[in-house]
Amino acid sequence: MASKSQNGSSRDGAIAAITSDINKYMKMGNVVFDLGKENPLKVKHWFSTGIPTLDVCLRGKYFDEECGNGGIPAGRVVRIDGESGGGKSLLGWSILSDCVKKGGIGIYFDIERALTEEFAGKIQIPEHGVIIAPHIKTIEKIFMASQVFVTKFAQLDEIPPHGVIVIDSVQSMMTEDMMADEEIIGGQNFGRKAKLMGEFLQKLLPYLDQYNITLVLVNQLRTNINKKTPYDDDWIVPTSNAQEFYSQIIMRVYKSSTVKVDKIVVGQTLRVVVKKSRYTGPHKEVKVDLLFESGLQNEKSMLDALKALNLVSSAGSKGSKINVDGEEFTFKADDFKDIYRSNKKVQEWTIKQIESTYNNGSGWFQADQDLEGKDIINAAKKGDLTGLIDIGIDLENKE
Predict the structure, then answer these.
(1) Exposure pattern of 278-316 as b/e (b: 16+ CB <10 Å)?
(2) pLDDT score for 222
(3) How confident is the model at residue 186 (pLDDT cuts 50, 70, 90)?
(4) What are the boundaries of each domain within the chain?
(5) Residue 350 has pLDDT above 80, yes or no
(6) Which CATH class is domain 298-363?
(7) For the residues 35-46, what does the mean pLDDT come to?
(8) What is the per-residue pLDDT for 23?
(9) Out of 107-121, 141-155, 204-218, 335-349, which region has the weakest mean confidence (pLDDT)?
(10) By CB neighbour count within 10 A (0-12 exposed, 13-18 middle, 19+ buried), where does 116 fall?
(11) Which of 143, 150, 278, 339 is the most exposed place for a label (fewest CB within 10 A)?
(12) What confidence score (pLDDT) does residue 114 get?
């Protein structure tokens, strides 16, 4: 009987022989690999959403010297769903901006024509490295332009290390038939957009992986009028079947509450729920403030996380304190922002605490799935009936 080591050697030899023969037979270069020695699907670059706590929930960690910090993988499909005005475009721009800052290039299909100079300045969009496409509106032409974008990588003298394509939004795309059909709305176009979306993603996916290009699909949520049970989703996403199949990451953005200063609304708190991630488990969430004049504010989210981890203690009349590798920082609640922004040591320590706690199975980031349906109800009880009217819920009979 062969020894254990001999069995291992025999198996390794068989794998090497089979791998070599398949590659020779296919005449397409290397198309199969020994996973023990090489993984061609390893993500080579990562981008940040602009929210470090969200990056941790998407990837399981944030810091990575080899592949870059962040939670969005290069070469994959990412979907961002959300309500109108909920920060979807901002997340898309944050991913694209981080890609450009790390040496890549990006193209933004602004189908909704939402980008203004004021908005670009507030969220600090890079002036160079971004292509804007506000006039391409049909799914066929967007696919053609995307193909040109990805295949051009191979023809450049210096190939960029990675890229990002953002389509904002999928719901706003039309088909060529819809553009040509000026008199009739609907008609023969029913279902064609969803079919084209599946073909679009199927054909584009190999290029994304080959050239480390991330495709970000921004989606407007629509009310699920066919909801029959309390367990059905309150929302639907048009053409979602194809997107769900090909997406590695799916996020959903909810408007949670307003941010006020002296009774004046200056922003809103966002709940970002991870619906799907190939790198960690789903149903994780983070909350972050979005100020209308200055964009995302991570500091409150970070402080909330540290409090949940019992890493913030009382400093008496001085407020609160944290101990960062032996160095003590004392602050009032409103002053944590200044300490966090001005001290890289505090930033890295805070994110590392969140990383380690995430991997130890702490529940502070677990999404309350019941809240997704109740957000509208709670808003309605406070006087905001907009969402309630949209989904047709009888408030009196809803607990």
Answers:
(1) ebbeeebbbbbbbeeeebbbbbbbbbbbbeeeebbeeee
(2) 85
(3) low
(4) 46-297+367-394, 298-363
(5) yes
(6) alpha beta
(7) 88
(8) 92
(9) 107-121
(10) exposed
(11) 278
(12) 79
Contacts of 284 (CB under 8 A, 6+ apart): 57, 273, 274, 277, 365, 366, 367
Q: Is the peptide bond before 169 cis (omega within 30 degrees of 0)?
A: yes
Interatomic CA distance for residues 345 and 231, integer angstroms: 44
Where do runs of H (alpha helix) occur along the chain?
4-26, 52-59, 88-101, 117-122, 139-155, 176-180, 192-211, 240-246, 299-308, 336-342, 344-359, 369-381, 386-391
pLDDT number for residue 247? 95
**Structural contact between residues 162 and 150, judged by C-beta atoms closer than 8 angstroms:** no
Helix 344-359 to helix 299-308 angle (10° resolution) is 50
pLDDT band at 393 (very low <50, low <70, confident <90, very high): very low
> Is the dihedral angle over the CA atoms 145, 151, 155, 158 positive or is it negative?
positive
Distance CA 355, CA 60 (A): 7
Q: Is the pLDDT of residue 368 over 50?
A: yes
Helix axes 52-59, 344-359, angle to 10 degrees: 30
CB of 102 closer than 8 Å to CB of 45: yes
